[in-house]
């Protein structure tokens, strides 16, 4: 077998080596206000800012599945209260939120969700700004694709968010490469702001071909997206890079979709590198992503998890160790 293209192609660097470690990391606020109580959320947010972190990512649908109402908004509300309690902190951070995946009817997701029509986007971003207590976000995302709406309509509406000063940049999450490119081509042809960032699930281990890694058909950062990002200079964010703690927590087994011979080889390489640099597996994974120009997102709920991630972002893996990690074939045999 030959080494997968994913191991050979890198995306546009998200940060330079001179960037403070915490600035290379995104703090995901998904469970703030539901599984993570407000006091803990504030502690994690405070530590992130004190460490020099800037990017915080949320969504209007977070976390509907963990809320009593069946609807989201709790994460944005907690962030809004944190901004209000910390005068001046909003100017120190870069804020991202997503729209399109909030249930229209509680208990009926994903069949019933708000989607990415012009009307839905306008309504959703208005609600997000109100909950966040701000007049703009630094990055606005289309959360998951909506085949009921022409992607050109989504592109036009999101471009207007930038021209109207509501968003600094726009991105797409959980979209196939062809729809990202179609939306970008349309925007450029119209002289409008194109999508410039993509956000997908990604990690050092790779899933078996044809398997879903979560709730989204196109949730995984596949080779086509990696290549598109490299050619077009798109920034790339990776969510759930630590597989919910499975790299280091014996109580959390590696998900079954990663159970194949390629993962066995990759874990062996990961153990080798971790031993050589004196770091945990998960920290090496975060450093590996950063070395590839991919901005990892941490969904940690504890301060010590954040501290470990920030430490990892300052870890520079030598070229020979990166070569060792990248040289393992990631393509498992088809069933």
UniProtKB/TrEMBL annotation:
Q: Which domain of life is it from?
A: Bacteria
Q: What organism is recorded for this protein?
A: Promicromonospora aerolata
**Domain (NADP-dependent oxidoreductase) ranges:** 24-325
Q: Name it.
A: Aldo/keto reductase
Phylogenetic lineage: Bacteria, Bacillati, Actinomycetota, Actinomycetes, Micrococcales
Which residue windows does the record flag with biased composition (Low complexity)?
1-19
- Pfam families in alphabetical order: Aldo_ket_red
Segments carrying the region annotation (Disordered) are 1-21
